[in-house]
Amino acid sequence: MPYAILRTAKLKTAGNLTSLNEHLQRLRPTPNADAELTPLNVQLVGSPDLAADVQARLDAVGCTVRSNAVLAVEHLMTFSPEFLDIRKEPGQSGKPAQLVGSPEDGAKLAGFRDRAMEWLSERYGKENVVNAVLHLDEQTPHIHATVVPIDQAGKLNCRAMLGDRQKMRAMQTSFAAQLAPLGLQRGVEGSQAQHQEVKRFYGLVKELNPQLEQEAQRQVAQQRIRQAGQQHSRGGGIGM
Fold first, then answer.
1. For the chain, which has fewer Cβ within 10 Å, the N-terminal or C-terminal residue?
2. Residue 239 lies in a domain
3. pLDDT tier, 239 (very low <50, low <70, confident <90, very high otherwise)
């Protein structure tokens, strides 16, 4: 059974917000994104200006921002790759590229989007979820959602949102339960598995041996060719 995946990251500075926004809006090179599929990305909440969305929420509440405060918390929500069986269909005759899959795959992706966003709103308050983008141009669809941690007293309070390790584990359980009707399950509780950033992975490869980088790229290309050969043609675009 595929897994529900949730990762959080604290955004403490204006620079953090700018850097994330550049990734969200593809304002800087993203090696693992397919530029032909980038037009399929969807702004679910907020605007293409993340910093402005965060500031608007802070202004609306009128809270004092301490120098060491966490301005917002990014939530990366996705699933293990086997959850969907979709593929890219290249553009032809002036038509743009699209993602295609079965009607069931389309329904599952829409269900993930709706249930994940519902979970955020119920947990933090819809007004605090100031920005969310669905990325469809990378290998596995995922949502980047930004939440301003305003507590019931109207103050920035990241500690109340994320809490300690026990509360973080409970958050993972809650998120997985929300997506369970789609056939997604929680990962093993207490697992020490780590996810390396893509840029860190490439950095390690280059440090070891430049030839290894070429070999890694060659193997990835061959794997994609094999996968393409194994996939069956299916009609219908995966639209969001």
1. N
2. no
3. low
